């Protein structure tokens, strides 16, 4: 994968995906990752194709896009047969859409060991009975095998994104991590089962390391070597708040120490700092920037 920088459609807040894409394109951002946060409506696909032609947009799809008719939590590890079937069908649709839009990569979140409420995504979940990690991984790997075959047949590269374990959820669930693939060890266990390529969300990793008492610097250095597809944003280490990436911060200093050449990066910043974050990311990509 040749390195490029994408902007997530979630960086702007609209109910219709075409409105988000147009808003970004009119600001000059034409590499756009289509993500969650919008609602389904008639003719959305044709509108995206029209915008692609009008602005020369390069798309890629991510996780919870396209939006389903009824919102739910996408979970390829779900023990509930109906939820898992809906999740698999959603990914199948996203792969087909990716091919139609000329999008070569599609990333989906790693699974959960419980059934979260979609209304509480990004918040602290209520304590729930957890399926075993082995069972969750087996269900994920079984789904992944068929989905990855479909993706290959459509010329799409399929990626799994590391989950985030917030401080609040660490408090709720204690030492029994309810999420798959939050750190290097649990990512390795999932990859061993399904050989999935890693979409490394740096902000997710920062929070998870803080919750698990791990060195973010060490984990970042190890995992960034294993991925050619990264998500960038920042936070205070307790929750995934999608703050901007800025020069002079601790995160920027750590990113200077790793090799980012030839990696595709998507900015997922929700605080209005798209251009500031883009400038910081471009600075990181300057030849010779890596200190490590």
UniProtKB/TrEMBL annotation:
Task: Please name the Gene3D superfamilies in this protein's record.
Answer: Divalent-metal-dependent TIM barrel enzymes
Q: Which residues cross the membrane?
A: none
Origin, by domain of life? Answer: Bacteria
Instruction: Give the matching SUPFAM superfamilies.
Output: Xylose isomerase-like (SSF51658)
**Domain (Xylose isomerase-like TIM barrel) ranges:** 21-272
Instruction: Please name the Pfam families in this protein's record.
Output: AP_endonuc_2
Q: What is this protein called?
A: Xylose isomerase-like TIM barrel domain-containing protein
Q: According to the entry, what is the taxonomic lineage of the organism?
A: Bacteria, Pseudomonadati, Pseudomonadota, Gammaproteobacteria, Alteromonadales
